[in-house]
Amino acid sequence: MNYFDLFNVVPAFDIDTALLAERYRELQRAVHPDKFANDTEQQKLLSVQRTAQVNDGYQTLKNPLRRAEHMLSLRGIELSHETTTLKDGAFLMQQMEWREALEDIQHNSDPQSSIDELYESFGEFESTLLTKLATLLISDESADALLAADQIRKLKFMAKLHDELARIEDGLLD
What we know:
The structure is a single chain. By secondary structure, the chain is an all-alpha fold. It has helices at about 5, 15-30, 40-60, 65-75, 90-105, 110-140, 140-174. It folds into 2 domains: about 5-60, DnaJ domain (Helix Hairpins, Orthogonal Bundle), CATH 1.10.287; about 90-174, Monooxygenase (Up-down Bundle), CATH 1.20.1280. The protein is built from 7 helices and no strands. The radius of gyration is 20 Å and the shape is globular. It starts with a helix and ends with a helix. Interacts with HscA and stimulates its ATPase activity. This is Co-chaperone protein HscB homolog.
């Protein structure tokens, strides 16, 4: 299903999230199961299914990473259940450095400073990835779509690093 069509928004990486939220509320009002409480079982079931589609579409489009994946899936590139390994040597080296830094946090004399530095480093890197991704998603070239897929893979890795750093930070606060 094309969620951009469902929400009647222009297919783009940078979307108007306020407009998306407005369309979400409109669609929810139109298909909400309570509206069909006195209808046939088939209509009730259809309403539940449509509500699920609207909810899934909204969650997909409001999240930049999921939105980018959806854009690629509309072009025939599925990333949701893949196990493709990145072949970017520089990124792999950076991953190793970040992993080592995460492991060293608990042994640092000022762990919060290390955490703050990593958040900043992650943020800068993610910003660069998102800028590249936005540019690649504009292109109609299939090679650019494959490069966009690599950017998404990197961003997924960064999300995992963020989660791990947050867990470490929470553990230090306990």
